[in-house]
Amino acid sequence: MTGRGAIRLESLTKTYGRTTAVDGMDLDVRAGEMITLVGPSGSGKSTVLRLIAGLDRPDRGRVLVDGRDVALVPPHRRAVAMVFQDYALYPHLTALGNLTFGLRVRRVPRAEADRRARTAAERLGIADLLDRHPDEMSGGQRQRVALARALLREPSVYLLDEPLASLDAPLRLATRADLLALHRELGTTTVHVTHDQAEAMTLGDRVVVLDRGRVRQVGPPQQVYDEPADTFVAGFLGSPPMNLVAGGGTLGGRPDVTLGVRPEDLALDAEGPVEATVEVVEALGSEAVLLTRCPDGTRLTVRTGPRPGVRPGDPVRLRPDPDRVHRFDTATGRRR
Ligand SMILES: Nc1ncnc2c1ncn2[C@@H]1O[C@H](COP(=O)(O)OP(=O)(O)OP(=O)(O)O)[C@@H](O)[C@H]1O
C-alpha cells in the first residue's frame, strides 16, 4: 500500500472575505506517513484538510496528490476519506447501512458490501452494533462507525479532523491506540488535526505547527518539542507550556536573549540559583505543577513528582537543567 498518497501543498492560500485562513503554505506529506496538524483555534487546520479533500478551492497555490494537481478533480473522485468530529452519519440508516452505503453507490454487490462492512466493524469493535441507528449509539460508537466507513473507502489518503475530540478520556486513549495500530497495518497516508497535546506528540510521524495559516515548524514531535524553532512553537507544544523569560531576567542572560525552560526542567533544589515563592500547588495525582513567582515578578511553572512537600507561600529555590535551557532572539523570537 505504500507509495500511494504523497501530498504536496505548494504556496496554498485560502481567504474567506478578509480572513486569510491559509497563507502561502508549503508542505510535503510522504506516502504512508501520518502527520499531525496543530495550532491555535483559527490557525487554518481544518481549512487545509478541506482544501486537500476538495471541499474548498484554493485562491492560489496547488494541491498535488502523487504528483498530480487535483484542482480539477471533484471531491468524490479524489481518493480521499475525511472523518469529522461530528461523524456525519446518515441518521435514517443503521450502522450497517451507513457502512455499506458508499460501497453500494459504487455498485459493489450487497453480499460483498455486507462482508466488507462486517470486517471493518470487527476491526473497530462495533460488530454487535450494526443493527442500530446513530441515535441509538454513544458518541464513541458513532465515531467508530465513521472511522469504519472511512476505512471501507480504501482511500490513498485519510483526513481526520479531531476524530477523537468528542470521546471521553478512556475511550479516547483506546481509540488513539486503535488508530495507531490501523495506520501501522494499512500504511495509508493520514493527515490528522488535533487540539490535544498527547495526540500531537504520539499520533504522527511528524507534527506541523501552524500559526495564522503559516507553517511555523515541521518535524518529528519529540524533535519539535526538544528544539522549538521559535518562541511561538515553544509556547504552543507542551502542557503546561515552556517558561519564557524575556531579557533573561531572573534566569540570567542578556537583554537581547529570551530564555526558555520547560516546567519539567526546573527542579526544586535548596542550593538552586533561582529564588521563588510558591503561589499555587496543583496536585495532579501522578505529578504536581507548582506556579511560582520570583522577586522580580517573573512567574515560573515547575513540574515535580506527585508530592512535592511544599505549600502556597513557601519560599523555594529552583535549578534549571543547564542542558535544557533554550535561547531565543528576543526581537525575532527565533531560536539561537
Ligand atoms: N466558511 C468560512 N467562512 C468564513 N471564515 C472562515 C470559514 N472557514 C474558516 N474561516 C476562518 O478561517 C480561519 C481558519 O479557520 P479553520 O477552521 O481552518 O481553523 P482551525 O485551525 O481549524 O480552527 P479550530 O481549531 O478552531 O477548528 C478562521 O479565522 C476562521 O474563522
Automatic annotation (TrEMBL):
Domain ABC transporter intervals: 7-237
InterPro entries: AAA+_ATPase, ABC_transporter-like_ATP-bd, ABC_transporter-like_CS, ABC_transpr_MalK/UgpC-like, Mo/tungstate-bd_C_term_dom, NA-bd_OB-fold, P-loop_NTPase, Transp-assoc_OB_typ2
Annotated region (Disordered), positions in chain: 298-336
Domain of life of the native organism: Bacteria
A GO MF term: ATP binding
Coiled-coil intervals, chain numbering: none
SMART domains named in the record: AAA
Low complexity: bias regions: 302-313
Keywords for this protein: ATP-binding, Cell membrane, Membrane, Nucleotide-binding, Translocase, Transport
Cellular component, GO annotation: ATP-binding cassette (ABC) transporter complex, substrate-binding subunit-containing
Basic and acidic residues bias spans: 314-329
Stated name of the protein: Carbohydrate ABC transporter ATP-binding protein, CUT1 family
Species of provenance: Micromonospora citrea
